[in-house]
């Protein structure tokens, strides 16, 4: 389909409107006609900025997993793991703010979209005296762990400390019940400690 010669809307406005629709109505309800109606334009106007629905969803993924994720203000140094812990927590916050859009990350977040970000974090690791041979292990592990853990959390209803594992029967699962009763960490704190343990483990195993 030919694109209109003059844009009636901005690309950013279309992306933010797409997120509004997904947040309120769900990912399955999102469509180009619905987006056009939301923006008060005809559907062909969207083709001035996007080739198709897939391209819009890529931009949605970039926005919630990149644009809105704050970069921690930490200088390189021996406490470098805390930079990644803070970054992971900021990523989690951004995704959970848009739970309905979380599945978009599985299909529409090509890693090459964030090459520049990975370059910056690799520089941070280098300036923190982290061995270069560990950089890919750290960067790949952080991405895999953060996206996997946060998507699982986003797809479930919010849980308390005692319902992190739901539907546990004290009689048939006494050990798990006892573990839940002893757990003092919230879901956020569990995520934070998992990330921290991974990072310190990488260095410990390298020594």
Summary of the model, kept short:
This protein has nine helices and no strands. With 207 residues, it is mainly α.
Structure description:
- It is flat and about 60 Å long.
- The N and C termini lie far apart (58 Å).
- It has a domain at 66-160 and 168-206: Orthogonal Bundle (Tetracycline Repressor, domain 2), CATH 1.10.357.10.
- The chain has 207 residues and is mainly α.
- 58% of the residues lie in helices and 0% in strands.
- It has 9 helices and no strands.
CATH class of the domain at 66-160 and 168-206: Mainly Alpha
Number of helices: 9
Quaternary class = single chain
CATH fold naming of the domain at 66-160 and 168-206: Tetracycline Repressor, domain 2
DSSP helix fraction = 55-70%
Strand content: under 5%
Low-confidence stretches: none
| Total strands | 0
**Rg of Cα set:** 21 Å
Note the run of SSEs as H and E: HHHHHHHHH
How many angstroms separate the termini? 58 Å
The CATH architecture assignment of the domain at 66-160 and 168-206 turns out to be Orthogonal Bundle
Give the integer mean of the pLDDT values.
90
Largest sheet: none
């Amino acid at each position: 389909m030919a694109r209109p010669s003059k844009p009636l809307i901005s690309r950013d406005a279309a992306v933010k409107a797409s997120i509004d629709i997904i947040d309120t109505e769900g990912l399955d309800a999102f469509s180009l006609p619905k987006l056009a109606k939301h923006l008060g334009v005809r559907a062909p106007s969207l083709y001035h900025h996007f080739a198709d629905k897939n391209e819009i969803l890529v931009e949605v993924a970039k926005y919630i997993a990149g644009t809105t994720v704050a970069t921690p203000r930490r200088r390189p140094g021996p406490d470098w793991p805390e930079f990644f812990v803070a970054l992971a927590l900021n990523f989690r916050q951004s995704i959970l703010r848009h739970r309905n859009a979380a599945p978009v990350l599985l299909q529409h977040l090509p890693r090459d979209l964030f090459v520049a970000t990975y370059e910056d974090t690799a520089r941070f690791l280098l300036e923190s005296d982290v061995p270069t041979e560990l950089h890919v292990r750290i960067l790949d592990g952080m991405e895999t762990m953060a996206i996997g853990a946060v998507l699982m959390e986003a797809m479930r209803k919010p849980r308390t400390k005692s319902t992190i594992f739901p539907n546990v029967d004290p009689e048939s699962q006494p050990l798990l019940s006892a573990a839940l009763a002893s757990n003092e960490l919230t879901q956020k704190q569990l995520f934070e400690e998992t990330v921290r343990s991974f990072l310190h483990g990488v260095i410990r195993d390298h020594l």
